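job 3f2a | input accepted
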Amino acid sequence: MILFVTGTDTGVGKTFFTVNLLKVLKESGKDVLGFKPVETGCDPVCEDATKISEVCGKEIPPVYSFKTPVAPSVAEILENRKIDIGLLKEKIREYESETELLIVEGAGGIMVPISGSYTFLDFAREIADEVAIVALNKLGVINHTLLTVEVCKYNNLNLKGVFLNNFGKENERKDVSRISNFDTLKELLNVPVFKFKTAEDFKSFVEFF
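job 3f2a | predicted structure (209 res):
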């Protein structure tokens, strides 16, 4: 079983979501692993993959890591290293065979290109049983989330739900849209919508997974 984690944008909390979901599922006795197959901005280390490895209790490095903090398709050109999609899938199948649930984290949003015109949407269509969308609670999240859900549904992806990250920096907390975004998304979307802010909030997600 593969759960693919994507976001409405970069920096919305995908890794926080992945790591804390892994923690609570492991604590509940679930056989689960996490994996980020491609990571950019690894200068000097791949922070996301490191966090995932720590909670899994084993080293699970990306298949491809790049120093430049850009989309993988751009990073492979800038750093002259071609990404082999087949190798990514091969590694995912290897980890999938070792566990009951494999949580695979993408980079950025669902339409981010991995190599050439091949996107994380294409990747999810080929490897994922379910997709979780992480969104950051701020002005603009309604549009970004509806667009992401729409493209996933159009491409027949099985949506597990939308997970609204309520974390915000001090200036973001003054954003009045944060008060209503969750209820608005629940009203507009025909998929489950959840919210989280701290690691403690993930305990309520265990039965859902």
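job 3f2a | The chain has one domain: 2-31+90-208.
job 3f2a | closed
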